[in-house]
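Section handout 9: paired folding examples.
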Amino acid sequence: MPTPDKAAAVAELTDKFRSSNAAVLTEYRGLTVAQLKTLRRSLGENAQYAVVKNTLTKIAANEAGITLDDQLFAGPTAVAFVTGDPVESAKGLRDFAKDNPNLVIKGGVLDGKALSADEIKKLADLESREVLLAKLAGAMKGKQTQAAQLFQALPTKLVRTVDALRAKQDEQGGAE
């Protein structure tokens, strides 16, 4: 029978899984308290990094409707619960892991779909949502400009063609 403390911990973790856009499971073995503090800061305001018990986390994930591989729960585990842009948090984890090889990204969840460590690294390689939206807007504006130039070129070309025909007709008419 679970103790009230464990039941409360599972309920809290379940709530975090449900309210998060993404969750990234990491192994933090060998990191100092100061390094963990730096990691928490590097994740930004939209992510919460918590050291968790494997069994309780697995139960909470199942209760939240998320199926995770048992291999993710080997060794000491910490979870980054992301409520904002998952790309920003994935970049923060990736960059921190480059400087601190003791941080190992095991895998995670994005919008209810399980992700491998490689998929999280690919996510970190994406540009932020704002940059992608700006590029999309720029591309759309460029296409509109091209379309406007095309529509403007058609009447202009028609006028030039008519003028050329008139000039040719005048030349031929004047020669006779």
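Moving on to protein 2 of 2.
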Amino acid sequence: MIKRAYAALAAIACLLFATGSYADQPKPWETGLQEAATGNMHEIRWFEAYTLWFIIPVTLLVLVLLIVVMVKFRASKNPVPSKTSHNTVIEVIWTVGPVLVLLFLAVPSFELLTKQLTFPQNPDVTVKATATQWQWNYEYENSGNNPLAFDSFMLKEPDRAAAGKEDKSKYPRLLAVDNELVLPVNKVVRVLVTAAPTDVIHSFGMPSFGLKIDAVPGRLNETWFKADREGLYYGQCSELCGKDHAFMPIAIRIVSQDQYQQWLTTAAGDLTKANKALMAAVDQPATVNVAENVAK
């Protein structure tokens, strides 16, 4: 019986603290931030861990104080309540303490914010993302003589086979799209974000990049990132924008510079062909489940 209890606790611990929860897309039982794919996101993850060194002690202190007050100063033990109205030491402690805590949180917070808002000079790629209900339109600003622009819709389940995206571990339901935004690794990407003039406010959010910026009709916002590893990353519109807000995903595929240039050249003439060629080059073959054979 005891062994079963230990086994159950171990299973629960594996679910809660499994390293698989850190990925480029949401995972079941995920309790932390997604794995970082940019320098800014690495800084955000560090700041999250840093703040816990203050949040946890403060929370425990408040809990202890509440327990002490409930036990020591309950009505049955103190029928005549204290009428103390002032204590200089306590006043100093609960004024200076929070100020110091806020100071230790504010300094790295402002440093991180400054880094996010300091745009590198001469970005390698500039992309304009325009939001409408309920899709994204991407336009490559410096794509040469053949300008490239396309819409990105959420991939519908009946279209998976035709798109070659039947593997839901790579192309998850409600997050996969028909046309991903393709960009090169280790390059500075400037993203101009807006919404159609007659539309509503949206938000361009990519958790693995530490990126989130509003898409406002009639206004051009600007952000940037530099992905440090290849892969397929998923985000979503992060501003309530209507009945299909939950069905407005963002997918960014980060590839090598050579693959990006080849895709960009082909996509200018045939986007579907370019996407299929890129998928064939970067997608790994599905692993074969040989558990039954091993068992035999």
